[in-house]
## 1
Amino acid sequence: MNNPAASPRPSHKRYFFEKFGITDHMLERCLGEALAAGGDYADLYFESVTATSLGVDEQIVKSASQGTSAGCGIRVLSGERTGYAYTDNLSPERLLHAARTAALIASGPAKQTVQGFVEAPVADLYPVPLGGYDLDLAARLELILRADRAARAFDARIVQVRANYSEELKRILIAASDGAFASDTQPLCRLNVFVIAKEDANTTKGSAGGGGRAGLDQFSGSKSPESLAREAARGAILQLGAVPAPAGEMEVVLGPGWPGVLLHEAVGHGLEADFNRKKTSAFAGLIGQPVASSKVTVVDNGTIAGRRGSLNVDDEGSATQETVLIEGGVLRGYLTDKLSARLMGSANTGSGRRESYQCIPMPRMTNTYMLAGDDAPEDIIRSVQRGLYAVNFGGGQVDITNGKFVFSASEAYLIEDGKITAPVRDATLIGNGPEALKYVSMVGHDLKLDEGIGTCGKDGQSVPVGVGMPTIKLDKMTVGGTGR
Amino acid sequence: MPDAASQSEMTALDLESLAADFVALAMKAGASDAEAVVREGDEFSVNVRMGQVETLKESGSRGLGLRVFLGTRSSTTSTSDLTPEGIRQLVDGAMALAKVTEEDPNSGLPETGEFGSLARDLHLYYDDVYSLEGAERIEWARRAEAAALAADPRITNSDGGSFDASTGRKVLANSRGFVGSYRSSYAGVSAAPLAMDTNGTMQRDGWWSGARCFAHLESPEAVGAEAARRTLRRLGARRVTTQRVPIVFAPEVARSLIGSVFEAASGDSIWRSASFLAGKLGEQIAAASLTIVDDNTMLLPTGAGGFGTSPFDGEGLPSQRTVVVENGVLRNYLLNTYTARKLGMKSTHNASRGLAGTPGIGCGNLYLEPGILTPEQIISDVQAGFYVTSLMGFGVNVVTGDYSRGATGLWIENGQLTYAVEEVTVAGNLAEMLKNMTAIGNDLVFRGSVASPTLRIDGMTIAGA
């Protein structure tokens, strides 16, 4: 848990005021216009993003790109209704026009006034150097060139290597009619390596990546360019000798870290409050009910320093927090934003997020993980007669209404008589969210968070997230291979 | 719609000269070649849930992208800031970035003489998408949901009905003399009802109608009724045991298989050898009945341009029709200029271009040519099998061809659709699946830019209980 000394940081706010000529008076005027037709609540979300990316491919620095965007989204709530308008032109006329458009969700005389802004103290989970990060392109190029060299050196069968580095600095400012006022500067970077391995007629791929809300010094240890390159290359070489994945229900052991994507799909989405408020989630009405084995405790925690899924404030200006979702197997809570907290009469967990100023915020995850248990990972493997040991995954998906979820293993092995044996080809695992975690019979002591590569999609909006898990054993899960 | 219209103060001509100005600025700053894109768009959407407006969204935006070359070095920049300072940063930034890249002998704009834009009217833009008044738009969303809710007492809840409309303009200009632009429009209506069965299990599905022209939309009532039918047929779903039986893919899921073939045949996968189709040009890669075409010039039966139709591609090359697979033989890779040069071939004019980044490869209207069997005939021919109506997850590896996805649908018994099936996977390998396509339906309908009729594939594995 991380709770650094909190202090307001006026520099974020100053950026918008100086660069775009925004004033307190202007913010109040826009909110006033937004509420003029009788809305209950209005907020303004200003965003300015600069993104840079560099790519090496075939040992050539082939690509370099940079993009900037700025805009403001204006939201008005009236009962359960949301009116929304945005503009990428931050002139007073355009902002007022957008405010008037969003206001039309309500109809009637103004009934709410704009409260005086109060900027609450927030954490500083990802300190940004004064004036932002310097864009030393050479230092960033060195990262991808090192990754390229390490991947090529790994094995002569690695025939293609691509490495990309991307970085963004997002500044946000939120002003709401209830007086909420927040600003933040959010760095995010990521290093990715993709390789192709070839042997005779066999071709396979491998990839690895890492990143987070921190500077370049994070790319060391398990996230060094060399480690990531070796990881990508190792995965591709391993696949050259893979056998068909088995098909059907069996014991499944999931390795620590990124396989926590299981939690994101199996329970995380189903616990987002919007689905539960509308009773469209398979988890609706299950608070206080067992939804997992007693060994399972799952939290969503947006307050871990430097993590990809962490935020000082969510996109409604509320402080993020650690929220217990499942405790000892019992469903404890949902992830809420302002609207769902108000309508459900529950606390706001600071989970209101959006992809950009063009999008309406909704409850989303941050870093979602299972707490460690007592079992030794070796004992977990040893306990399996015949099963699958999956250590790396691609993406997953869930149907929150019937609870069915999938996630696709990209590195997995057979377990035979308590021993890890042959690597298997890609296979999707499928289960039912409110049931799957009831079969968790062992939980390792080796909790690990992922390396910082997750992106979550919901209703067409993508946001960066993290996952984590110790090694766990599920007594049964369906493995979607082609073999026996 | 006066609000959206007021966002577009600039005419096509203004935007074209704006793009040409950016190119000139970049050339003046020392670029050896330059290419600019301008995008302008506006959108409206309303969602009605349980009869009440839930969200109402309305806006417009504009963006600018620049690609510059210094010989065979290149970079790209983009911005939403069209002020003189924003534009100066765009140009200066691109020049500075290009200097950190290295010589790539295959990079560069297409050759002068290759450029062009289809002159005929492709019917991509209809101003009627905004013809409904605000209250009527809400009414369309409400009617779609209401039709779904009224269809059956087991429909008890809803994710809502929606109506949305958008228009956009794309402009491309470069230093080799190409300037082109086009407008497009879209309107859509949808419904997503939930049904509950006697033991309290919920199911959700949905349906939609989308068109470039408002007048071509299906009625909200038809959309709502179809959404209800799709949701109801999921009730009572159970798992089946692990087994190998024929799989019949409904058109709305079969299209994703055709999309995977496109990805595997696209130049970027091919030159990297990152595709199970690499090096297979001219070879029999699929059943002899299989022909896949990518046609960027197509008009729909309604007379409107297809969802993937455009006058020119993302590099300014005139749109064309490309046969990808003909009678099971791989005839063409799908290429942009860069990947064509890597392979020593000609571009198939499949460059895609967003605001940011270098051109990628995109399909136009990609489809599997229909066969002669009705979907009912295909199903009636299956003794025991699985009719798949939705797929989940991303378990498609075009490098190895390995395919494994979550699936939902209906069980086929003695040629009849019976009970609903869920929580199973279907798995195989694309290279074998293409050869094991044993029946192709006659039911090709373009609901989006990628389309397929009903398909039967043998030899795949269902993993279940």
## 2
Amino acid sequence: MDELKSQLLKKISELVIQGNYKLMTDVIKDALNSKISSREILDSGLLKGMEVVGTKFRDGIIFLPEVLMSAKTFKTAMSIIEPLLMQDFSFNQSQGKILLGTVKGDIHDIGKNLVGVMLKGNGFSVVDIGVDASTEKFVDGIERENPDIVGLSAMLTTTMQSMQKTVQVLREKYQNKIIIVGGAPVSQNFADEIGADGYAKNAIEAVELCKRLLTT
Amino acid sequence: MHFLSKQKVLVFDGAMGTMIQNLVKQEYICPEELNLTHPEIILKIHQEYIKAGSDIIQTNTFGANYLRLKRFGLQEKTYEINSKAVEIARKVSEGKIVAASIGPLGELIEPYGEVSKDEAFNSFYEQAKGLSEVDFLNVETIQSLDEAEIIIKALRSRLSLPISVTVTFQKTPRGYFTMMGESIEDFVNRVSEWDVQMIGTNCGEGFNQSLEIICEIKNLTNLPLVAKPNAGLPQFKDGKTIYTETPEFIKPLIEKFFNNCVKILGGCCGTTPEHIRTIKKIANKINYDG
């Protein structure tokens, strides 16, 4: 029984790494039938797989297409186990709420969406206010959702100023709100200069950053 | 391509987007809409680059494909925005070469994203309609070779002008790759299947990295090379976005580009007429003294 269990969990993490979303539904059902808890599926199957994906991505072994397929496979599994996870008291204690948006003038959302998927998979609740989001839209979102962290994304060198202005306004209005930034032209240096609390190079690092910021 | 044989090396222009940003007080607009609403601003940028020594100026059409304009509600003006951009550039070109800037969709194409291949094709087919009066088509900031292939097919369906394709590579622990994981070698191999006359690299992390990429490309192809590097990655100091690679910084690197088969050198994000002036001085030396 235990061997079957570990085999199935291994299979789940392999499917995530391969980005094989087509087989995932059946394997998750097998796992649930074999009395593996949704929590175990998440922690010892799905997240373990995503961790490998993250490392391979960081090391330049795989790229965006592979990560996107892995994220899709991850989401396929999550759509089945999410209702079960919600019944799990310890999981229901969300790791924290993150509000995400792409700043005004910028219409790019590939990176932001990936960050959202990874955060959700790691137990955060995520609110996405979309692209081309004005400062007012961020403020509305913060008032409505009261997130623990606000994440801003920018893809263009020409919209970094928009990011800076949004951070400035949010900083004045919400002294204690944690603000993080990311996107192709963004760097740690830029994040520091504009007064953001954190910067992550990619979606994997974004999860680590949010965890770190909420435990310190 | 008679314009390539005119001189040993040619000077492209510098950034359009970051220049617009410095000139336009109104914030966060669709930059290509300025072709219709404030042509004088685009005209002024072209003039400054010509004054600085650009042999080639580029139209303000980087994001003027149908789908990208649609995100600003301007899709019905695709033809108008493109043809007006060419008209503005031609007005001040005084015999200089005019290139059309064609950037990517900014969205992922199926199976990774929502945009179908047909939609992507049609988006650039619509853009091409307004670009018939330029000297060549500059497909730039490419991060997916599959997308580049679609763009080139769409352009070729309407226009028989020379095409240049420049790719943005990222440095990884295993070398240079596109966002989609394609290597420099993949790029050169794929291009050989297309009807393309010039290749190279643009945008990216700065002149040093761009030079490294060029040195790899030149070993794999005999096509004339084009480089338009960023002035480094943007930083933020004293309330302003600044680029660290000043004209002074890039000066010692310019000759190395030309020595490594680059036929056309200019600049991308963060470069200014001052950068172009610096490039021109060295280009002049090569064209007239050497």
## 3
Amino acid sequence: MRLRYLLPAAVLVVLIVLFAFGLQHDPRAVPSPLIGKPAPDFSLRVVGADTPFTRDDLLGRPLLVNFWASWCVACRVEHPLLMELARQGVEIVGIDYKDTDAEGLRWLQRHGNPYRHVVADTQGTAGLDWGVYGVPETFVLDAKGIIVHKHIGPLDEDAWRSTIAPLLAGTQG
Amino acid sequence: MRISLLPCALLLTAITLRAAAQPGELTPQQAARYQALVSELRCLVCQNQSIADSNAPLAADLREQVRSQILAGRSDEAIRDYVTARYGDFVLYRPPFKPSTWMLWVGPFLLLAAALAFTLRFVRRSPRASAAPVDPNRLQRLLDEESK
């Protein structure tokens, strides 16, 4: 058996591996260049109030920053999990992205509020600085305000258990 | 004559005023830069469109950023850096050449070179595989047998 007869088979194997890898990979999930960097500065206010809320309010303990909106359908999908996490004592800061205060508050009233703080990003300026391109997106921040992870799309049990929970636990110490 | 001159003068003035750059409006030069920039930035919502083509709200936000930063006198380089700092090299339709992207730039040429090498080998080899030389006597014998 000459080697050249094995070549097509070898090419096929390489292609199968490549395609298998491609199927696992979500082209919509674009890795953020902000991982490992300090969370971008912002100065917003709390939804339905004039209380300012800035980057400094995120420092001192690890937490999740969740960009959501009342008009966002996928946010409904992850909402029960966020409620459960809040019950377990995970601190989640919700940033209401390109939304009105009234709509945002009504949504939280109807579905429940998992957020320790709800912050209004009416114009989406903070979203732009944080590299948000489609809600929901969830950032994991350590106590120093460094972004250690970004989850794009609705948060699920799998991502929480395999990635985010260990990260939050790891940044505690 | 005097009556028709006035509208003409007014029209001319209006045109001149319109052409002169107003604050908040791009000069033709800046508009060209704007067009070039927005057509080479990828929209992350609908990934196969540039932010010039996309109707996504995020694309509108980014267009507005590009416009206002051009007005603020920032260079193309600075604006590109602004966008990649937030969304990564993925937003550039012409990504920079660096360790993580060299395959993207060189890959097609490598494939072409491999295909050429393969073709060349194939073409060179085929004449050698031609039929063995024909013995004219044997051929004649065969033909004779056939015609019997």
## 4
Amino acid sequence: MMAAAPLLEIEDLGLSYATEQGTLRAVDGVDLRLHRNEALAVLGESGCGKSSLAKTLLRTLPRNAYPPTGQLRLDGRDVLGLPEERFRREVRWVRIALVMQAAMNALNPVVRVGEQVAEPLRIHHRASRRQARQRAAEAFEEVGIPTDFLRRYPHELSGGMRQRAVLAMALVTEPDLVLLDEPTSALDVLTQASIMNVLKRIKHERGVSFVFITHDVATASELADRVALMYAGQVVEAASARAFFSEPAHPYSRLLMASVPRLYQEQPPSSIPGRPPSLLDPPAGCRFAERCPWAFERCSEPPPMIPCGERRQARCWLHHSPGGAR
Amino acid sequence: MTPWLQGLARLRQYPSALAGLGIIALLVAMAVYAVTAIPYSEARELWRGGEAWQDLPTNASPVWTDRLLGGNAPRTIRVATDDVVMEQERYEGVRLQRAVLPVDFPYGGFPQEINLFVESQFDERQPFVRLTWRTPDGESIPLDARRVGESERISISQDRQLESRLGFTPQVGLFTDAEPGADDPQVRQGTYELVIEAIQFEETATLDANLVVYGQVHGLFGTDHKRRDLTVALLWGTPVALAFGLLAAVGTTLTTLIIAATGVWFGGWVDAVIQRLTEINIILPLLPILVMVGTLYSTSIWLMLGVVVVLGIFSAGIKMYRSMLLPIREAPYIEAARAYGAGNARIILRYLVPRILPVLIPTFVTLIPTYVFLEASLAVLGLGDPVLPTWGKILNDAQAQSALYHGFYYWVLAPAALLMLTGLGFAMLGFALDRIFNPRLRNV
């Protein structure tokens, strides 16, 4: 439907960690597509591999990670095979920026905020100290921090201010894609709301794409154009936000949506019994089968991503035959 | 306000730190004064000894020791013909020049030596000089009479003839009215005069004489066996000691820190190599290696500094810094820095190293005197820089001349006191800084 090549294409991406108990497959066969000025929410509970996905995109993997497998293309160009130094110079913060989880600790405690926000510019644009400070001040205004905060140290900022500063740092080099790794999870509701407003405004004004990684269905629904739901290292459903939130296709999506508390809802939110499988030794078939009330014989085979609508797939055998549920 | 400035401001709460800072300021002032008052090349030249020191007494005590004991030891008196009127008479073909040099002698002891330095300019015929000593009572004692060359030292106190005439060594006999050969001659105080009469055979010939009556005491710190004023070495020892201590401390701390951070950041075989090198280096003894380098190669202070720094690179500090840096490596802001494209060098130098610097400041400050002492120890062992005046060199000279056996305690006291003062100053500052920057010792 879109003529231009997608900004980001992820194909069959896999990532494993070496642990003492064995090899842990954190990301397993993930396919995702993101167009310009699109916001993709990667939803999932903790440990489902969504942060590992972000780390793979920016190659900030911990030391015990094996090299990722699969395809990763930016504007049609492969970035997974790029040598480390070229990746650092050409991709990090030039194309993809990251707003880290736990922004509280993402700032160096002994460096002034203004200086830190300007760091990427100093590195990538070889900006002079003055230029960098000027741009940092602009970025601060954009995310709604008074510019006199530039001279402060991280501990002198409130949590919301720090999160904004980290966001300013991600925007300062004008990347095409910003990864938001749980950007609001440690904040109170009011601060969350104001940060989300800033993000929406930036998306509207700047035309950046977002990959918004969160476990919070409510905040995801505010920003996302598309949603990818992850479960046990795999994407189980990829759909437009509207379709996903109104009519979830995968059983896990359905149960997840049912567990979200809503205003004006009669029955109390339900929980999903059981727990996700261990990624050290995932089940051979559908990974959700064990907890799935709709499970049937076919579920012992691993399901592929099955199209079930316009730009929409679900990893569930129920969608395989036209006679399946829905 | 930055944490650094806050830390420094907190120093005010520690009187010991202020005292330490005061001592360090004093030493720095001494060093600055030494370097500006006596340039490096001049200091080296002076310390070589020789003519520059010819009118200073040998092994003279500091003036204050005499004051302290209530004595009235003689000071050095210098009188030159330039200070008095030179009378001149002409005869046929010759000129007779006459100068009277007054020697005001109010002291309670005899001088150490008496020398007359004579300089004259002539074409062919040397002037003839006759010297007469006049006591305060007007008694005249004839001294030497001789031709003098262009530059000559007439050593009155070593005139054997005069000694036998007086019955005392000249420096005693000329200043006493005791009977010749008396056991306990007393000083006769008053104004003595040396009369110089010169016969010049040429119209343009000149004569300048400079009488030095050497005292028993000199200056603030006394002199050594080569008549050198110890002040020069004590003053110049300050910049040398501070520079050596500071450079060695900076050199070893910084390189060690950067290497430790490099090992921590890259991990793997880089870390392993650094750790093994450190373990080998820790068991190598520093002093014997320095002694070997000094004996076999060169005792230049800068070479020694280089060896100290090189051997200090893979020191035990690496282990300590490594343990402090390992948790910092895992900090989210380091990961963030990696994500926004900071290179390895940037992460090591701008993120890892500055994080542990505050904790290192006290160690660093207390490390400075360690190296000052090391340099002095080398000098005492005879491995000091041969041309540079340093505190260690003074101690080395004092030891070689058996200063303590001869009672020249001031020779050992002054450099030792300065060394101790240096240690004290830096230690007091360092301990206070430790209490400020080291979180475990911080007062809540």
